[in-house]
TrEMBL record:
PROSITE patterns: AA_TRANSFER_CLASS_3 (PS00600). It comes from Marinomonas spartinae. Belongs to the class-III pyridoxal-phosphate-dependent aminotransferase family. This is Omega-amino acid--pyruvate aminotransferase. Its EC number is 2.6.1.18. One of its GO terms (molecular function) is adenosylmethionine-8-amino-7-oxononanoate transaminase activity. PANTHER family: ADENOSYLMETHIONINE-8-AMINO-7-OXONONANOATE AMINOTRANSFERASE, BETA-ALANINE--PYRUVATE AMINOTRANSFERASE.
Amino acid sequence: MSQIAKTKLTQTQLDAHWMAYTGNRQFKQDPRLIASAEGHYYTDIDGRRIFDGLSGLWTCGLGHSVPSINEAVAKQIKTLDYSPAFQFGHEKSFLLAEKITEFMPAPLNRIFFTGSGSESVDTALKIARAYWRKKGKGTKTKFIGRAKGYHGAGVSGFSVGGIPANRTLYGQGLESYHLPHTQVPGTEFSKGMPEKGKERAEELLNLINMHDASNIAAVIVEPMSGSGGVIVPPVGYLQRLRQICDEHDILLIFDEVITGFGRMGAKTGAEAFGVTPDIITLAKQVTNGAIPMGAVAFKQEIYDTFMETGGADYMLEVPHGYTYSAHPIACAAGLASLEAITQQNLIDRVKEMSPIWEACVHQLKAASPLVTDIRNYGFASGMSIAHIDGEPAKRPFQIAMRMWEKGYYVRYGADTIQLAPPFTTEKSEMDSLINALGDTLKEQH
Ligand SMILES: Cc1ncc(COP(=O)(O)O)c(C=O)c1O
């Protein structure tokens, strides 16, 4: 058996794991293996320190190996490792649900637990359809997503998602239609919310005209698209979506798997952008990435509708849920994570430091003509990179690999580089990341 340089893993072992969203063939020729993580840094198997420029996968805003989360997890696994998710409960899920509601806009005060963002999206879409049935409007089954949107890897998620590469291989999904994305020509290098682009919400009226509101269950958008390359909503755009949904009796779902719990310098994207949806999907930051968990926040009226029409009280109001819904260890991690965000006042910190981050990332415009756009909000930024002819995804890949060599982890996807440093990042770390990226961009000429 051959042995890959830098690791004791054999080729056979490397081949056994079909890695998620990874170029498996390239990775297995040159594995990038992480051995440990603490604070804002990973250590790879060669002992190199690597700055975490994406907070894991937008998960670890508190940094890694947070003592209070580690302790909560260790204590919980010794006390109650698992508890059946159906028909029986444990106290921590109720405490965590209440804690999550403190982060949600007021009417969204009923929390359903899932195991991931994809399951949260599935849950939101299923409940949206079921809600309309309960209301006697069972024809409302279609969904509207948005181009460049990402809503996870489930069948429902790829259906409402709008990243073509994530859809093409999988055939028929749920019946879904898509709004245009909001990257409008002329808004390149906008700082924060672009001034232009609100009019793209009007396309919802065309879709309603085509399909009729009586057939549409919900519109689902990320308030700020993350995986599509950090696409910040134009001023007034989300307000207009809300208005149109209200006028046509369509549920509005915000997928806040990335934007929930502080990344925007607000509790949610809903709070940051001043629009309250009917349903919010959550995951990632809820446990700081330490244990898989997702959640969906519903406005109370939706919950009440199911309770009022649930039949005898020993009957299920909604036949839906997961073996790992409200897993006790995830709940313990979630309580510790959200407590730390509150205690350390991290949402205010992100808000206060966002202008510093903004100034930092926009310096990259001068670094290289290959940067064709830079977008930012809160502690998130995306930049578009000029294509190599016929290979739009290649240059971001090359940049991310070079950054890894230099000791920085950044995310690349399609023609973009994405950055999302931990909430506790210091200015000196921002400068170091951006300087390294600027130099790397220059090397690409
Ligand atoms: C907005 C959004 N929704 C859903 C998901 C899916 O989450 P998961 O990968 O936990 O299933 C993601 C993951 O990146 C996401 O960014």
